[in-house]
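Q: For a teaching session next week I want to show students how multiple molecules come together into a single three-dimensional assembly. I've collected the sequence lines for a complex. Could you give me the predicted structure tokens for the whole thing so I can convert them for display?
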Amino acid sequence: MATVTIDGDTLVVEIEGMDKLWALKSRLTIPLDKVRGATADPGMIHQPKGIRAPGAHIPNVITAGTFHLAGEKVFWDVRDPAKAIVVELADAQYARLVIQVEDPRTTVSLIEHSVRRP
Amino acid sequence: MGRPRGFDEQAVTRAAVALFSRRAYDGLSVDDLVNGLGVHRNSLYKTFGSKRGLYLTALRWYLDHDLAPLLTSGASPFPDPAALDLLLLAAVEQAPFDPEVASLIGDALASLDAALGPDAATALLGLRLRARINLKE
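A: Of course. Below is the structure for the complete assembly, covering every listed component.
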């Protein structure tokens, strides 16, 4: 589970509880101008995930950590796919984040209305 | 920002207009969009940023390329009432909760009023709303 907040011009993603151990990260900060949008996407869990390094991947239980696929790095922290959101980034360490949040609709709205589209 | 294009962005945008004209925004999952548009999920995210990014792109395309020409043509009666569907759906569903959509739809309704006169514009929207109950899949 992750908590997403906006602090000035920065998107802050805090990984909570035991997931910190699996994902090997407790906090991600991304400048808002590198955030392209967010989408509630329960179907994302069925996408190929690629090679995990580092982190934990126990199919149907937890997908957490950094995954490498087709030249992209994607950060995952999902136990319950129904609450997964996809945060698309540009020119950042990760191509996108796939994280589980308590209230996908509210978090997606927060991010979508904070990003500036060209 | 570098945004690799693995597909024809304009064709995908037009296809998205068709999807969003038939079903409500919340009724279309990303799975529906990926299947309906025939693009990879990651390409969709890479190109449009998000589902809402795709929606806003599709809505702007529709307003500029589908609706605006119909209004400037001055043809009477209005030649293609089905072309009002995305305007109607966006006005009912997304505009009340999304200021960006509300602004686009507000401008479009003002253009419709200016082109047809407010009474004719309101009647046209009402007739299309009633006709949509018999929309065929």
